[in-house]
Amino acid sequence: MTIAPHHPVQPATARADFAGRERTTARAARADFIAAMGNAATGVTVVTTEGPAGRFAQTVSAMCSVTADPPSLLVCVNERSPLAAAAVRNGHFGVSILSLGQAHVSDVFAGRPAPGTGHAPYDFDCADWQTLDTGSPLLRDAAAVFDCHLTDAVVSGTHRVLFGAVTASTVSTSDRPLVHHARTYGAHRPL
Description:
The chain has helices at residues 12-38, 82-90, 103-109, and strands spanning 42-43, 45-51, 54-60, 63-68, 71-78, 92-97, 129-130, 138-139, 144-156, 159-171, 178-181, 184-187. The chain is an alpha+beta fold. A hairpin with a 2-residue loop joins strand 9 and strand 10 (159-171).
């Protein structure tokens, strides 16, 4: 009696074809993930740090609270951004939730200022700044700001997750937050 293998050996051409499909499937899954995440409406933040490692800022959409007791939050920063390493070396960072009138600030710190504005990518002169406890720059006229001492930093894939203990925060009673959805800016509208 002949027993067939449970998983028959495929010819080399079939393995190559299967490997190609795996790569194609991985690319498609990544594209699907990016498209799905683009459908999430998020607030728009600029994360900053200033200290011995330098002064840096980056537009970030991945920010959320961790806990209110004690107040803490997290942000996800691409490892390629100099902000990721500088915030760790400086030991603190600031988060400004942009208001409706600050879309241009988001563009500047995303590295793509609008032509004709006179601002270079990552140009702090595009806005007015203040500091609270740590010395990290925080935007004036933001919808809200958080000043944070770094408590942990974890690398996950292409990003570094920065956890911060909030030492100070303020909220505007007049400035509505800027929202990002489907690669465009907008505003929250109550139902």
